[in-house]
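re: that complex we talked abt at group meeting.

here r the seqs, copy pasted straight from the sheet so there may be weird spacing, ignore it
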Amino acid sequence: MTPPTQEHCITCSDEAVEAVVVALDGTTALVTSEGAEERVAIDLVPEAALGDILLCHAGIALELVVQG
Amino acid sequence: MKYVDEYRSAELARGLSAEIASLVRPGETVRIMEVCGGHTHAIYRHGLEDLLPPEVELVHGPGCPVCVIPMGRVDDAIALAEQPGVTLATFGDMMRVPGGRGSLLEAKARGADVRMVYSPLDALALADELPDRRVVFFAIGFETTAPATAVTLLRARDAGTPNFAVFCNHVTIEPPLRAILETPGIRIDAFVGPGHVSTVIGTDAYRFIPEEFGRPIVVSAFEPVDLLQSIAMLLRQRVEGRCEVENQYTRVVRPEGNARALHAIAETMELRDDFEWRGLGTIPRSALRLRPAFAAWDAEELYALPGARLEDPKACRCGEVLTGQIKPWECGVFGTACTPERPLGTCMVSSEGACAAFYAYGRLRLPKEPVGA
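got the structure back, here u go
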């Protein structure tokens, strides 16, 4: 999700990315952001549903993003 | 693109720029510290300083998790990587941070098994793939990253994974902010608070800043319009005589944070008595270690580490950059002996480091040295 460019920090650092849930499998969600897909753990946001936007960081979802 | 286009609108940015200019008195100086390295990166990348009046000075704070790791902890990670049977996994930037014995990348070149991962969960998966080795995850980061390590530890415990361990270097954001506020000679008038850390700890965690130190703070998201709006909110507080915690990042940050994330951290980790921060010195109760219940996955319990405290290279002024006392380009080795390709100090390593961000986006604005001088 964080391509190795100067656009995003390639480390964990403290950068998180908002990504849309496209599939769910137990405690894992498949999310997409800017064309990139990644599997993230949803242990901390178990209520995540298809179409939700999640704030993702270092392989886990940190929070649901309120859609305006 | 949703949540990108509307937060990079030139029209909105111009309007906020004009509002910010109207909220300062000519000739005054308002020093605003952006705590988070992600904000520093965004400020330089989008040239936000050009949209601010000269009265507003942005000061870069200690919130780049790579930048605050002292050299001694890097040497400890190298010592772990050199243990027989150990595979050390960490985030990409940590591989390039110089310690007293070089970097992890150089240790890898000497034959150590060092792997780059994007998530501690990837390190745990690697342990499943390499049953004959112990995979040690070199964990760094503020409260944004600690939940990922916590969830990974809980999964390792639940799965009974015996060949996984964590070298825990997670730090917390409140103590360095207090340290900066209590340091004589450092004047900060207002704070732009970190967005993603606050997703976990909540905005209530910053109430000590207005209540004990009389400074306002606005927790901000990361796009250009977000940051300009946060600066305008801070200046509006000053004009209206208010001093409080405000939340600009309402689409994701709640006052109380994420209770599940805080619980996962509390279940797996506890505060250390003290921890050495690059540039800030030793700060009591400012970092996390694994709880005794997780000793079986704690690299500091499983291996004897050097634990040395090393002085930074004399020419490196990362400490002053991290506390906002000098700008990156005021360091004598900036862009010469210290570059992103060959960093001397941590601030030049991560793209969230103030020096690396300024090197990437801002250095062309510096006055050119006269040819032949």
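couple things i noticed - Chain B has two domains: 1-22+29-317, 318-362. Residues 318-362 of chain B form one domain.
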